[in-house]
Recover the amino acids of this structure.
């Protein structure tokens, strides 16, 4: 049990999203973890990961209604549900799911090609092993380079 908790702690701390990257990180601010640890995002993420690998966190509109809504949470849900397909399409540099992800996030379709190229390059250079890491990568790119092309969260 201790090994499982330590593994979850290391895993969760590697994907902490700062306020500059996004207003809401569903893995930290939603779900059971946020209810148990409302003032400790890392502990909330660890709790959510231990509970069900974060699935409940990104789909919890009941437990954290005020903080768990908006385009970024819908994007996180979409990524959580389609991660294996998104990985393939990012590697290919195109696809319906990656375009749908950007549409869900509220990004202009005219910017999709450039955004996909940037996400693809960062994806190849970064260790992206799960949905939360991809979400963090996408939100980071939007915040740093494409905020004018995507609706506010």
């Amino acid at each position: 049990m201790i090994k499982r908790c330590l593994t979850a702690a290391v895993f969760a701390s590697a994907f902490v999203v700062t306020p500059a990257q996004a207003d809401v990180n569903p893995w930290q601010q939603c779900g059971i973890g946020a209810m148990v640890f409302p003032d400790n995002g890392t502990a909330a993420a660890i709790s959510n990961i231990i509970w069900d690998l974060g699935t409940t966190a990104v789909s919890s509109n009941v437990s954290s209604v005020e903080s768990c809504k908006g385009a970024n949470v819908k994007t996180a849900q979409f990524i959580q549900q389609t991660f294996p397909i998104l990985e393939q399409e990012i590697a290919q540099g195109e696809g319906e799911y990656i375009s749908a992800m950007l549409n869900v996030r509220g990004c202009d379709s005219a910017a999709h090609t450039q955004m996909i190229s940037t996400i693809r390059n960062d994806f190849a250079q970064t260790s992206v092993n799960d949905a939360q890491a991809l979400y963090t990568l996408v939100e980071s790119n939007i915040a740093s380079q494409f905020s004018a092309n995507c609706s506010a969260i």
